[in-house]
Amino acid sequence: MPKYHLIESGSQLRDYCDDVLRTAPSVGFDTEFVAEDTFQPQICLIQVAAGGQLSLIDPLRIDDLEPFWRTLAESPQTIVHACRVELEFSVAAVGRPPGGLVDTQIAAGLAGFAYPAAYAALIERLLGYKPKKEETRTDWRRRPLSTRQIEYALDDVSHLHAMYEQIDAHLRRLGRSAWLQEEMEEIVRQVEHAVSDERWRRIPGISGLDPQSLAVVRELFFWREQEARRRNQPPRRVLRDDLIVELARRKTADPSRIRAVRGMNWRGVSIYIGELAQCIERGLDLPVEQRPKKAPAQRNQEMSVLGQFLFAALGSVARKAELAPNLVGGPNDIRDLLAARADSGRASNPPKLARGWRKQFIGDLFDELLSGRRAVRVADPDSDYPLEFE
């Protein structure tokens, strides 16, 4: 097992931040957390590679992690793999992302490797080392940590810098360093706006609901969030998504009819029937002009046929350019682009393929194809990249 420093107190953490993190030109880090039982994921361990040393920070023994997140926010470069949860921890703690944030998973996709690639797969591909996987389902809340757990945790950061050096060399060769910066800025924006009032729209099954029912969904969603935070439980444990949709569909604030919905007789929910009835009544009584608008309707079948062709073209172009197709976009992104073009570009927010590096890489090409300024032909049926654009 490699040598490491164990940080278990607030004073040790402050000294570590001042002596190591603040002077390190680049910091690699990862976290271990448990998300099943609490409103927010519970951070249980922080692994750090900085200043030529490995360290483990034990959040279960340290009351205040703010010095760590504040110091990290000032770092010239922070390297993480699949960074969204770590980014959420940082924004929640100090309102800022880690400084100079780099996600090796995204960087690898931009450099032509598979996306999304697991950390272990990338390490093996780039460095020829096979990380340990035995502790992927461990309960990181338990103490003391075993030798195997510690080895597994250190493995997650030991090779981050070496791996990113190789990926960065590919990015520089392909001229895509600016693309990576753009992607990181977009992820930061997404996380910072994750608490926006539109989160309720992610509830599955609401696409067919009318505006009045959507107003009920919104009321129930925010009641659930408040109650889950109070109980420190996952929101879906307070009230399931399907029950929110069913209550919104029935459009009744009558407690007896609410109680008659299958699943509402569980005591953990039934004791709140009165509060739920009030939420539903507020949604039903909301003036028409204040009700949420329905999401755009699904695209028609003719458009999906064209979308299938463009999606195939995207894959061919991306692979030829050493770029992971999944990172460029998926079928929904193609449909969004076609819908925006059908609306003559009147949408206030351009679709994903019409913004930034994706517009440069594929969006402009698709525009030329759709307008007839370019044509596509099969140049070589036996080639890995058979399509040619003229």
Task: Furnish the topology, listing elements before pairings.
Layout: E1 5-7, H1 10-19, E2 27-34, E3 42-50, E4 53-57, H2 66-73, E5 78-80, H3 84-94, E6 101-103, H4 104-110, H5 119-127, H6 147-158, H7 160-174, H8 177-192, H9 211-231, H10 235-238, H11 241-250, H12 255-259, H13 267-270, H14 273-285, H15 301-320, H16 325-328, H17 331-342, H18 356-371, E7 376-378, E8 387-389
Parallel strand pairs: 1-4, 2-5, 5-6
Antiparallel strand pairs: 2-3, 3-4, 7-8
Describe it for me?
- The chain contains 18 helices and eight strands.
- Helix 3 (84-94) links the parallel strand 5 and strand 6.
- The N and C termini lie far apart (57 Å).
- The strands form two sheets. It has a six-stranded mixed β-sheet, with helices on both faces.
- The protein is of the alpha/beta class and 390 residues long.
- The mean pLDDT is 91.
Task: Describe the structure in brief.
The protein has 390 residues and is an alpha/beta fold. It has helices at 10-19, 66-73, 84-94, 104-110, 119-127, 147-158, 160-174, 177-192, 211-231, 235-238, 241-250, 255-259, 267-270, 273-285, 301-320, 325-328, 331-342, 356-371; strands at 5-7, 27-34, 42-50, 53-57, 78-80, 101-103, 376-378, 387-389.
